[in-house]
Amino acid sequence: MKDYLVRGLVNSKNCRVFACQTTNLLEKARQEHDLWPTASAALGRMMSATLMMAAMNKNNEKMFVNREYPVDKENYVAKEYKEGAFVNALCGEYSPFIEGFLQGNFITWEDMMPYLEYTFLLKNRVIGKYFGMNLDLARRFQNIFEPGLSFETLIERLHAKQLTDAALRRVLLHIVLHIKYYPFLEEAKNIPVPYARILGFSKKASPLLREIRKKSSIDIIQRPIEGKKLYAASSPQAQIYNVDIRSADFYEQIAARKAGRKPVREYTRQQIVK
What we know:
4 domains; two-stranded antiparallel ribbon; two-stranded parallel ribbon; 6 strands; 9% strand; elongated
């Protein structure tokens, strides 16, 4: 269907009506400028409105259209804006995470390679006992692993048709966290998710949180120490919780070292209350 513009008069010629179809025009603009869907929608509305306004011009008059966004002059006056105001406006509540990422405070797979190397040097003969590691993968791992390898190079060398890269990453993470083949891990596959941990909440959401705890079919753990008292030490739920806490402590150790701060243990960490 071609693009078109329709004009009309209603109410005894006292009201002018315009309607237009600009799908093809917008698609051309989207391709030329490589726009995302949200930007395409905004541009499409502006182009349609501009077309209808231009249709009312006479004598081949030219029209220029600018899209202006509201600006908080208190925070954004040129060269006088408050520190961080621009980032906060763009990123909102996610700005602390983005700032941390830019400063390198989030850990990556490469950060875990020294731990993987150390584990392999100590226990290279029992590498096949880790959860998810089969005999073939253990042999290939022993044949190709060498100190100084990057994580992506290791994944590339270990890659096999019968094992996805995601599965390989899980196995390597099991090695780093010393998650071996325990019976409770097989049992855990057949039980529902035993709990949910609350990492942080807004004060306004406190009534909602209380209601969730009353009606939830699983345990809601608000403080890490609560989970330690919920389950019998030998139960699969307790074992899963122990792995959860150990993983959180491991992540915090690396992140704190990168950020140059003292690590906070999971059992003593304060909840984020906004």
